[in-house]
Design brief:
Length: 209
């Protein structure tokens, strides 16, 4: 699971900053407005206006096109835990092609609805994007295929679009040594007719290094 590694890096790097009497790491930003994350419309300049200059920018040229990925990270600690939020924006030929946002802050914590997963699985070839949104709520991430975002790339192989939902616990500052971080992930893929073609449910409760 690729996005967990990004979260763990951000969250575990933060206690080191505490030694320098700092209160946070990264550039503070809020949850992205869903109506602005439109494929084929949002450009890198728009992202900078909304979220500021990204902490990390990655570019990649492939046979499918020219890609650029912006990464925003922010972590903050209280007396007991580290909370984090991360935003990835993928641009293809200068326009938004994919994104993934997750947060462990109580105010905007991303979650995964597990109660209707069986309905998704029973809806292969039947349920549409609107049906899925009605069951699961707004996804935390989407990508048009092909995509170079790690959690979408392989799932794009036989699909035209992938949606994702993600949840992670905070990192405790009171646990000595490796600790188990509970995560939940759900990915739903769509074929060229806009119907469900794949459902991938995963999770982790493992020591993080």
């Amino acid at each position: 699971m690729k996005i967990l590694k990004l979260f763990v890096f951000t969250a575990f790097f933060y206690p080191l900053i505490l030694l320098c009497s700092c209160a946070s790491y990264g550039d503070k930003f809020s949850a992205p407005p869903a109506d602005r994350l439109e494929f084929g419309k949002l450009a890198p300049a728009d992202a900078i206006t909304l979220f500021g200059k990204p902490r990390l920018t990655t570019t990649k040229i492939t046979p499918d096109g020219n890609y650029e990925v912006y990464k925003y990270t922010y972590a903050q600690a209280d007396i007991s835990a580290v909370s984090s939020r991360v935003l990835l924006l993928e641009f293809k030929e200068g326009k938004l092609n994919g994104y993934f946002y997750w947060s462990s802050f109580n105010a905007d914590k991303t979650k995964v609805n597990l109660s209707d997963v069986d309905k998704l699985k029973a809806g292969f070839g039947k349920l549409t994007r609107d049906d899925v949104a009605g069951l699961m709520g707004k996804p935390d991430g989407k990508a048009l295929c092909p995509s170079i975002l790690a959690d979408f790339k392989d799932r794009c192989a036989k699909n035209t679009e992938v949606w994702g939902w993600y949840m992670t616990d905070n990192i405790s500052l009171w646990t000595l040594g490796p600790q188990k971080v509970k995560t939940e992930e759900l990915y739903v893929s769509f074929d060229n007719s806009g119907k469900i073609s794949g459902v991938d449910l995963a999770g982790a409760n493992r020591p993080d290094k």
